[in-house]
Amino acid sequence: MPTVKDILETMDYGPAPEANGEVVKWLKARGAFGHFIGGAFTRPEATFAVENPATGEVLAEVSQGSRADVEAAVKAARSAQRDWARLSGHQRAKWLYAIARNIQKRERFLAVLETMDNGKPVRETRDIDIPLVARHFYHHAGWAEVLADEFPGTGPVGVCGQIIPWNFPLLMLAWKIAPALAAGNAVVLKPAEYTPLTALAFAEICAEIGLPKGVVNIVTGDGDTGAALVAAEVDKIAFTGSTEVGRIIRKATAGSGKKLTLELGGKSPFVVFADADLDAAVEGVVDAIWFNQGQVCCAGSRILVQEGVEEAFTRKLRTRMAKLRVGDPLDKCTDVGAIVHPVQLKRIRDLVARGEAEGAVLHQAECQLPAKGSFFAPGFFTGVEPANIVSDVEIFGPVATLTSFRTPDEAVELANNTRYGLAASIWSENVNLCLDVASRVKAGVVWVNSTNVFDAGSGFGGYRESGFGREGGREGMGEYLSFPAPKEKAEPPVHAPETSPVPESGAKAVDGIDRTAKMYVGGAQKRPDSGYSYAVMAKGRLLGLAGLGNRKDIRNAVEAAHKASGWGKATGHNRAQVLYYLAENLSARAQEFTDRLRSAGASKGAAEREVAVSLERAFWYAAQADKFDGAVHATKSANVTLAMNEPFGVMGIACPNAAPLLGFLSLVLPAIAMGNRVVALPAQDMPLSATDLYQVLDTSDLPGGVVNIVTGPREELTKTLAQHDDVAALWYCGTTEGAKAMEAESAGNLKVTWAIPNCDWTGPDGQGRRYLSRAVQVKNIWVPYGE
Ligand code: NAI
User: Fold this and answer.
1) How far apart are CA 89 and CA 86, in angstroms?
2) Which candidate, 117, 182, 525, 543, has a CA 20 to 30 Å from the CA of 455?
3) Whole-model pTM?
4) Candidate of 245, 292, 395 to mutate for ligand 1, largest count of ligand atoms within 8 Å of Cβ
5) Domain ranges of the chain
6) Residue 115 in contact with ligand 1 by CB distance below 6 A
7) Ligand 1 centroid – CA 270 distance (Å)
8) What pLDDT score does 484 carry?
9) Do domains 65-263 and 550-776 have the same CATH topology?
10) Separation between Cα atoms, residue 362 and residue 380, nearest integer Å
11) Is 3.40.605.10 the CATH classification of the domain at 550-776?
12) Could you confirm whether 263 is annotated as catalytic?
């Protein structure tokens, strides 16, 4: 045994294990677990073993949920949901408070159970995970209380299917269940097969406090159980996990009308500028990628260091790495715990070996790993070529890549050189630089001089292939609410347009009918690539011709839209001025637009009303361009969390056949007011009201490429837009089949889609803040202040 003097020399800690007797007793008493359905546990059936990743010991047997189990749980949720939603917000808040208090009462138990199940150090579960779980339920109890005032006119979605991963088992559960319950939904949650135990302990808490039966249901099992939940009669799926499974779920839910949020993978940049506090940044790396075994979707796994400090930073990092304590997760002094499962360990080993084989240099802590259990020594790669697998693929283990950059522009370029967009961490003592880079990185969460900070009051979620939707705070609440369905449903199918070659120029204006068939791309009129036009008819009369757009026209329009990127950077004031001007120009030509609608068969009153509302809408969205702004969330102390509304970039918009002028403007105006550039497909049967807008757009100082109009077969062109990697978001208003195709085709790059129900476009459903909120994605930027 070492003497005190020895210890003072070596500064070596002895072990400080957290007692786990209570948890072992609890597990022994339970034996095998069934599912938690309708307020009670079912008899365990078809069980599988859940192991402690740090020891390999079996902790419990858990049931593999079948389709029938899932259906029973959904049924229980369905019958409980109506009464739950009928409770007042105040009554639901009381239940959420009760959950929060009971979690707090059992914090230590839950922290130990989580550590045994997941392998992460007890320091993390005790200090981060479980306190945040309680915080989530308290925070959302508050949302239940104020729901009617804060989200007027909304209601719950219904029954929510929730599928979560193994990296933050109870915290992910809280992220999903707390807002769902606050909003009046009932849930069926499937925890990850490696880590179901805290969810089952949570089920016991629900039973103990007497939460109405069926409001929370937990069905355990693997991916098959998850797939059964996706297929079940639920109204929403909320999924966190791999991008690959996210894609499968996007396809499986296409056209089902189920609301969907996906929180997927990441390869987040961790950018260190030369003037950063390097010691703080090194501790940031420890938090970002090592303390959690790298098993965090938003882990800063790509370290980018400015050239001048690369050497010093790397040296400091190696020194710090050598001091990390890897081992028993229940030891309170452990920094790096166990990898969740041998399968995941193998994945990490394989990826790291491939990274080395492809030429990267691995620097790894030379620590003594425990003899049993799944452990991996923390490390980082240098000399990583862009083509190396580890520069692109999520390792999801305690290994980062480190590369250097010269200028802020290069840092931004490297940071954005990924298909993901979950998070970013930026280190510099210059706040101007930090916020400039924060505004330019494509990520849903940006931490300035900090990393992996979470709070229930802030939204969390990604851009690009990191998924869509937000969890937490006001943004997350919105995901669990629905607006009352508009009265009208999807429109009847559109017919293939009758085509004929585009007449040569000079064939214009025969019988007073404009026979040119131009589209509007990059601020100029363009002939369709196909060389064909289609006849626009009303009551058997030819009104004019429209170009028959094809894939190439869409590609050209998307390219033109990309070039108009200055629109997204313009101030809200500038955009407002252009849109006011547009509205004025439109009103100067109100009669022409009315005549056009009348020629298409609208009655005088209907045509006049459509134009009048179009004008109102144009002025309204012009006014909103500099008013629909973000928020500063109340999260941690000495920190501002800025929730910034950012445009998507290039959006596709397929417009309804109904209300050819107003339908078009109701969708295009909010999108451009928020700084997006648009490729719009006007009403297929009556595109002329949109093509008549060319001159209005031209004379309104709208930069070329902000609005591009491609006429032609809407369903086909929508598919092209859905498949296009450079279209970030897509809105579609049309047929049920068309909406389904859009959702399925967009799974490739997981773009944000919105199948918009047709409505009375002249009424209040056709306008409002919800169109604006759908036209932006929220970026949460965390900026600490003080010493
Ligand atoms: P996964 O995506 O397969 O599993 C996540 C959850 O989805 C689990 O509950 C699983 O049972 C369920 N699931 C699997 N297949 C399903 C299907 N077809 N339909 C419905 N649900 C399904 O993730 P996995 O296999 O655990 O980890 C693989 C990789 O995914 C990791 O190495 C990591 O790269 C990434 N990952 C990302 C996470 C994140 O937080 N974004 C969390 C966990 C993993």
Assistant:
1) 9
2) 117
3) 0.95
4) 245
5) 65-263, 269-461, 550-776
6) no
7) 24
8) 75
9) yes
10) 6
11) yes
12) yes
Q: How far is residue 252 CA from its own chain's centroid?
A: 18
Protein residue closest via CA to atom 32 of ligand 1: 396
pLDDT at 485: 66
> Is the CATH number of domain 269-461 3.40.309.10?
yes
Q: Around 305, how many Cα atoms within 13 Å sit in the side-chain half-sphere?
A: 25
User: How far does the centroid of ligand 1 lie from the alpha carbon of residue 321, in Å?
Assistant: 29
Is any atom of ligand 1 closer than 6 Å to the C-beta of 227? Answer: yes
Out of 3.40.50.1000, 3.40.50.2300, 3.40.605.10, 1.10.10.10, the CATH code matching 65-263 is: 3.40.605.10
Q: What pLDDT, in 10s, does the model give residues 218-259? A: 999 999 999 999 999 999 999 999 999 999 999 999 999 999
Amino acid of residue 204: E
Residue 759 is a catalytic residue: no
Using a 6 Å cutoff on CB, does residue 188 contact ligand 1?
Answer: no
Spot the catalytic one: 18, 124, 193, 263: 263
158 close to ligand 1 (CB < 6 Angstrom): no
Which residue in 206, 297, 298, 367 is the catalytic one? 297
Q: How far is CA 321 from CA 316, 329, 367, in A?
A: 8, 18, 10
pLDDT for res 488: 63
pLDDT of residue 504: 59
Ranges of the chain whose pLDDT falls below 50: 506
C-alpha–C-alpha distance, residues 722 and 653, integer Å: 10
Q: What is the per-residue pLDDT across 335-348, written as a single tens digit (0 to 9) for each?
A: 999 999 999 999 99
